[in-house]
Known about the structure:
It is a single chain. Helices cover 53% and strands 0% of the residues. The chain is mainly α.
Amino acid sequence: MTPAGRRRRESVRMQAAELYEQETKPSEVARRLRVSVKSACHWHQLWRDGGREALASRGPSGSRCRLSPRCLEKLPAYLDEGPAAHGWVEDQVWTASRVATLIGRKFHISYSVSGATRLMHRLGFSPQVPARRVAERDERAVTTWKEATWAEVKGPGRPAGATSASRTKQGSPGSRHGDEPGADEGAHRS
């Protein structure tokens, strides 16, 4: 959660405390503050047990960062050097897996891929999409592959007349009502 989100949540909880002091019921607090009744009831219980202080924020939730402030300063510099500087020469893409490996190599701290992703977001990094095509792209080879190889791999597809996706059987002509199409077909048979 962002710092602004934490401040908003604490503000709402303090407003709830004021309302509880005025003997407002939790359901009314929920309506006024636009929160769930479950949250308002939970806050009411906390308020009854410990007053306003019980509703005060206890800081950010979740596990604390395992990297020291100094390591957190160094990590962006390592990332700015690019993957090739750290042994990934096949492309210039930082993946969460590579970042987790880099953290392990440089700081001797094990991070999961999802943990590395969350850390990167916290540091202000986001997933990136290349702005342009790679310089080595051979447009003729791509066109040839699309026209020749892809046509073979893809297969023939559906025939032109096959429009129904279901495997239902058509009803027998004798079971149709008189006003339905094909209802008179059964009468012609002998």
